[in-house]
Amino acid sequence: MIKEYRTINEVYGPLMIVKDVENVKYDELGEIELSNGETRKCKVLEIDGTDAIVQLFESSAGINLADSKVRFLGKSLDLPVSSDMLGRVFDGMGNPIDDGPRIIADKRADINGEPMNPTARDYPSEFIQTGISSIDTLNTLVRGQKLPIFSGSGLPHPALAAQIARQAKVLNVDANFVVVFAAMGITFEEADFFIQDFKKTGAIDRTVMFINLANDPPIERISTPRMALTAAEYLAFEQEMHVLVILTDITYYADALREVSAAKKEVPGRRGYPGYLYTDLATMYERAGRRKGNKGSITLIPILSMPEDDKTHPIPDLTGYITEGQIILSRELNKKSILPPIDVMPSLSRLKDKGIGKGKTREDHSDVMNQLFAAYSRGREVRELAIILGEAALTETDKLYAKFAEAFENVYINQGFYENRSIEQSLDLGWKLLVKLPRSEMKRVRDANLTKYYDKFKESDDGQD
Amino acid sequence: MNKGTIVKVSGPLIVAKGMKHANMFDVVKVSKHGLIGEILEMRDDLASIQVYEETSGLGPGEDVVTTNMPLSVELAPGIIGGIFDGIQRPLEDMRKISGSTIKRGVTLPSIDRNKKWDFKPVKKVGDFVQPGDILGVVQETVLIEHRVMVPYDISGKIVSIEEGSFNVTEVIARIENEKKEIKDVIMLTKWPVRKQRPFKMKFAPDTPLVTGQRSIDTFFPITKGGISAIPGPFGSGKTVVQHQLAKWSDADIVVYIGCGERGNEMTDVLTEFPRLLDPRSNESIMKRTVLIANTSDMPVAAREASIYTGITIAEYYRDMGYDVAIMADSTSRWAEALREMSARLEELPGEEGYPAYLGSRLAQFYERAGKVLTSGSEERVGSISAIGAVSPPGGDLSEPVTQATMRIVKVFWSLDSSLAYARHFPAINWLTSYSLYASKLDEWSDENIAKNYSTLTKDAMRLLQEEANLQEIVRLVGIDALSNPERLVLEAARSLREDFLYQDAMHPFDTYCSVNKRYKLLKTIMDYYYRAKEIINDDIELDKLFGMPVREKISRARLVEEQNIDDYFCTIDDEMEKQFKDFSDKEALS
């Protein structure tokens, strides 16, 4: 028999105090029944003697201290999971919002998951081809990696994320990615963009969507990414699928967390975010990965918009400390219509070294990568110098570098959102740009690759001139 | 049975009543799951307890049982090569029980009770022994001889000691104390993690810990027994530097603490370390490594304990007379765990919400490092070198954890994101980093490496400093404004950066640089500079001077395999001699 309490004593912000409870546990899920019969979910945040501090998952509007009833359900918040979830759309709390039938649960999984034993992890090392040169060649994504996109308002991160979801594949393997998509606090239009894009390409059939829009209660946002990751864990580690999880936008998630923290009167850390923001984000991000003896994988792409494009803001900052690299979008490139506007210099994939090279991509991959980085970096420096001192101050080699930097941006990065380049194409294109520089400048390339690739591409380049 | 009852649960902090009999910092078992917790505060008969495991599902009325023991680690053969969580639970064994994820309430002995070790006594019946004396030895791994010491509460005359095969709980010796009581000695001992293990005296450290990393060993050296910090924003390569130190430094034993960091990084260590060979012994470096892994998704309270677990293990091996290096990645995550518990205890916050005792806790941790004369009648010297990574939010070094750390450490390797973007690794900024041991080690280096060693490093550092000044000018008015000697400074500094400071951690021969290779490489680069400086004037053909063929050889020297070093540099010396002579001859002609 589940007891009902009519002892709600206080409601403030998303929190509520229920008095005189018995046998209530920390983190237990509860239900509030309003006087009109409507029910809302909540969970126990702290239990002190017979007082329970309860956090609402939904808005507190309409709660009446006298008439509302609270029931505690004896379990923590869980999600019914099943492979039937593919192709379906849910709200931020995991309830279906398309017109489809209810999900018949294969099992109910706790949305908080469990920490993975580090000895059970399998190191991510399989190359994912996204078809985007600036990612594949320079900031390679591997299966099981967590690689966020650092963006800003007005930058086309949805288009980039949709492109990755559409094009991502693992070479030499048939298995396709299934996509778990969680929207937290984004606008209808942005969410609709994803839905339409997935529909157009047919990807919708292998996608699970959790949608919490900007006008939904912020408090729901705290569970949304956990719902998505729980579904992803089920699909990856129990159904052995390859799952690509896109979480957008982490900034709004963190803001919701801040709201709850402020209501709890916790000591704020930087910019008012709670001190445990790092741990909170880590318990989500770390759910990505691969496990030994399991074919499935979770590759995680969180998207976050940096307030004022400030990388040192707590959200991108803490994210960067947890994730294995980052893809940074540049406003300058976007203004120049270089799309996708990926700023390759500060972008980074920490796991790239284990995912590239002979047998994975191509033997010359790391050389091309290092040389492109070095040349582009030098090219940018030269360009800056030219602004201060004028073109005349440049040496002949410097001019070649300046030209290279232009070409690199206009041809290599600027591929648009609908071109899908194979890794061979990306590497070949890299060589085509590099051969415009003298052979003696190829300091990062091993001799064998110089002969095999540089000379070959140089020849065909000379033929064209 | 000493039993209390839970009255309050708030995340990892619980409050229990009926706890008068318990002691501060006692370990308690919470609820029917037997979750491990530690008492942090006592008020009347209420105890505040931090729980090292997930507390979801706990509520008032459940039992709390005290063990009457502070949080301790088990010390015995079998630690080396292991991977433990923050409270020394063996993760490999846990996986066998609970699968890929960490389930709560798993209790496991830290050290395998069944494994037999061959114990060889070095003392005999009738010998008088005191705490810390070595009773006998066990070959723990190929590299490490485990010295079984007399426990700290026993001294007297040995009445029996046996050679043979024992597990860690079997009696290896009996000792009769002054009161004529006979005490059994087993290999397994326990030690409370928050208490420093005793030693006789501390020395100022005076020998270098050679890390095989040129930038560190040359300009910002750390000593055996020294302490250093690596602060840096994300993406600047902190973890790679820490891994490099764990792999190549010439400590006998390495304790690596992954404290609130990425799970995949620990996996990387676990897959890569067993395959790497120690350059001195040619054995797998895992045979001298202990890993403590408390990744960021694991319970936050255990993260707080992990660095104490690590340093206690380090002290144990130090007491045997070993040089131990301990790496903590990252102390900022540890401080955050401290902050979280402090907030839940409703303590008054200090700066940025960190507790006011952050600085003293950090100092207590780092002060457990050092070079000491160990307990026991044998004069053994052991050391602990501590290297802590710091992750300042936004790369801002003025934040509390970095500042509190900087007050304590003697070596500061400042990682720089602009160097990392330019793909210069290790991204240790040579202008802002420092080592207070550098001058102390000069003497050692001049004696043990080469007479002119300290002059070379000082000249090299001066070049790098001058380069920074000159570059300011270049940025404003262009390179043409510089005189030829100034251009030479730029060129030599560039060579120092690209051919010497830059070190590729992924390259098989460049990842570790021996003392010999480091000295010869530095000497060669500086030789070129000295020679060029002698002949340079404003009419000289710079392109020819800078484009001298020998310089390409210099730039490839860092990639040369260790065994070919001497020949390689001999050839370079000869070629340089000849090319400078030819150059001067031509100059004289024209």
Description:
The complex is a heterodimer of chains A (465) and B (590). Chain A has 465 residues and is α/β, with parallel strands linked by helices. Chain A has three domains: 4-72, Thrombin, subunit H (Beta Barrel), CATH 2.40.10.170; 78-354, Rossmann fold (3-Layer(aba) Sandwich); 365-464, no CATH class. Chain A is built from 13 helices and 20 strands. Chain B is an alpha+beta fold. Chain B has 16 helices and 28 strands. The longest helix of chain B is centred in the last third of the chain and has 25 residues, at 453-477. Chain B is globular and about 95 Å long. At the A-B interface, strand 5, helix 6, helix 7 and helix 10 of A face strand 1, helix 1, helix 4, helix 6 and helix 11 of B.
Short description:
Chain A is of the alpha/beta class and 465 residues long. Chain A has helices at 133-136, 157-167, 188-201, 224-238, 250-263, 277-285, 314-322, 331-335, 352-355, 365-389, 396-413, 423-434, 447-464, and strands at residues 4-5, 8-12, 15-18, 29-33, 39-48, 51-56, 69-72, 78-81, 89-91, 107-110, 128-129, 149-151, 169-170, 177-186, 207-213, 242-248, 289-290, 297-305, 325-328, 348-349. Chain B is an alpha+beta fold.
Oligomer status: heterodimer
Shape of chain A: elongated
CATH topology of the largest domain in chain A: Rossmann fold
Radius of gyration computed on alpha carbons of chain A? 25 Å
Strand content of chain A: 15-25%
Counting DSSP H or I runs of 4 or more residues, the number of helices of chain A is: 13
What structural category characterises the helix and strand content of chain A? alpha/beta
C-alpha end-to-end distance of chain A: 85 Å
Mean pLDDT of chain B: 92
Biggest pleated-sheet summary of chain A: 9 strands, mixed
CATH class of the largest domain in chain A: Alpha Beta
Q: Which protein chains are joined by the largest interface, and how many residues does each one contribute?
A: A-B, 71 and 70 residues
Number of strands of chain B: 28
CATH architecture of the largest domain in chain A: 3-Layer(aba) Sandwich
What overall geometry of chain B do the principal axes of the alpha carbons give?
Answer: globular
- Please tally the helical runs of chain B, counting DSSP H or I stretches of 4 or more residues: 16
Helix content of chain A: 25-40%
